[in-house]
Amino acid sequence: MLQERYQLAYKLYPYERSADQDQDTPVRHPVVVLGGGPIGVATALDLGRQGIPVLVLDDHEGVGMGSRAICFAKRALEIADRYGCGKPMLDKGVVWNLGKVFHKEEKVFEFNLLPEEGHEFPAFINLQQPYFEQFMIERVRDLQKDGVPIEIRGGNRVDSVTVKDDHIVLEIMTPEGPYKLEADWLIGCDGASSPLRNMLGYDFTGKVFQDSFLIADIRMKADFPTERWFWFEPTHGSGASTLLHKQPDDIWRVDFQIGWDVDRKEEMKEENIRRRLDAFLGDSVQYDMVWSSIYTFQCKRMEQFRHGRVIFAGDAAHQVSPFGARGANSGMQDVDNLGWKLGMVIKGQAPETLLDSYNTERIHGADENILNSTRSTDFITPKSDVSKVLRNAVLQLSKDYEFARPLVNSGRLSLPCTYDGSPLNSADALGGPARTRPGSPCPDAPLGDTFLLPMLGNEFTLLTINADAPDTLEESGVQVKRVALSASDDKTGALKERYLGDNDSAVYLIRPDQHVAARRPSFDETHFRAAIRRATGQE
Amino acid sequence: MAFLNTKPNIDRPDDFYAELLSAHDGLNSDESQDYNTRLLLILANHVGDRDVLSQALAAASQKRE
Ligand SMILES: Cc1cc2nc3c(=O)[nH]c(=O)nc-3n(C[C@H](O)[C@H](O)[C@H](O)COP(=O)(O)OP(=O)(O)OC[C@H]3O[C@@H](n4cnc5c(N)ncnc54)[C@H](O)[C@@H]3O)c2cc1C
């Protein structure tokens, strides 16, 4: 009845019989999340912490084996930290700053990422995806003890859905047979091949790249430096390009570009993987194989992420090639965006149309990610003669001339997108720094012993810098609290640089997902009340 | 916005042309293509201005607007 589609790394939510299975009429849940991958579990954390009962269904009983994502960017970590599980990720993860680029037999240049100071979280960490998921599920378990209404049911496969006017009916298969449930809202986080999308007949279109990569995670005690190596056209014959990355626990990720017409079974044989690894690392290096897989890559998305009461997030809604690490990272931003909006709609604090802004803003985000990851893919795996000539000219020049180095694209760091043009933004009345214009994710800043982002929290906030405002404000059912800062809190000047620019003071209206909704030099009640209505879809 | 200079701007044009040609001496057509591409990137960086580069890209395609 229930078949494992993949091997588990950790069994974290074993099947248990639910009382729902013994009811004569299907039990209704406010929110059902289909899929207990990173994005489904994050959705549960976001909603559960708002006090909204949420049920996660997954056909497996835990986290899949094999690492897949290894690069988690600052924004995803900041979101996880808001949910209470960012610190363990940071403690476990590997931080690197030095990258080396090789072409043919030689190193062409190296770069230091020189991260900007004054952020609690680094630009990104390397961490195996199963750890990322495990830390989130541990957080769920802690919150459950405090009565936070999250439930995860493993061994629950959703086989069919029927969409009604005001709810959805789900048919679920378990090891003990089928049962039915109803949901007011259904969130599809069931991954890139989303059965939900297929059941409902929604398209998933875009570009498939005619190439494939072989990944090997190996354990190596050797004293290899914590650097990222990207090797274009290595002459040692390991592949058309090769990438080496460090992960925690002495594990290294090696990616080999192996072409499109490959015999997968043959390539996956240990002796063949070892042949490539030995060619790359040299014969004398000892290692154990931990996990390997072959992946092809594509950039695709759904035309709409919201279909009434069915909403898609994560890989189910959009898929990118892995270069630039935008898969899980952008899925976390989907959750961040959707969580507070759905919460307000369910609590009756905002009209249902607020959810359409999830669609607009996250499609904007997905398109930006697809654009970036397509460009990296085109550089790494040039598909025409001329694109290869250009690519190689850039690489050749980058050895001697600094100017060519920024053109080398072996994956661009995943940065959160600014929701320019979003219907929730109010016009910029400050003219402050561009990076904090309305629609921007708030950049962190150090404030003595603490940082800015944890102070902003999960609610609508008025951030005042050298400015007056009421300590709380209520508008159309939305509660806004004030966070008051002044020049004396800003020992490093980062707050001024990031939020004031040439202005002496500023007042920011910040959304629960820590994106800027409005900003002005001082508090003006009429304008900010209008901005709150606008940011909650009430204007 | 800066504009692409399409008026004569190279001093002693015959000398320049000869120098350009001789740079390809002894190169086969693949090597010549590689050379031209490197040259293009070096010059493009020197220009730098994105508007001018876009105008140059359009001018080189020889499609008349
Ligand atoms: C090689 C590789 C490298 C990557 N590197 C990175 C990286 O460095 N950084 C990054 O951010 N991203 C990376 N990604 C992408 C990242 O792995 C995905 O974006 C991420 O896993 C998506 O999470 P998700 O929760 O949307 O989907 P998934 O992780 O696919 O989870 C979907 C869940 O739904 C469940 N499910 C499916 N169907 C049903 C059903 N009918 N009933 C019940 N449950 C169901 C599945 O069991 C699964 O648990 C990489 C991907 C690959 C392949």
Automatic annotation (TrEMBL), chain A:
InterPro entries: FAD-bd, FAD/NAD-bd_sf, RIFMO-like
The FAD-binding domain, residue ranges: 30-366
Cofactor: FAD
Presence of the UniProt keyword Cytoplasm in the record: no
Gene Ontology MF terms: FAD binding; oxidoreductase activity, acting on paired donors, with incorporation or reduction of molecular oxygen, NAD(P)H as one donor, and incorporation of one atom of oxygen
Keyword Secreted: no
Keywords: FAD, Flavoprotein
Name of the protein in its database record: 3-(3-hydroxy-phenyl)propionate hydroxylase
Naturally occurring in which organism (per UniProt): Ruegeria halocynthiae
Source lineage: Bacteria, Pseudomonadati, Pseudomonadota, Alphaproteobacteria, Rhodobacterales
UniProtKB/TrEMBL annotation, chain B:
Database matches in Pfam families: DUF2783 (PF10932)
Database matches in InterPro entries: DUF2783
Name of the molecule in the record: DUF2783 domain-containing protein
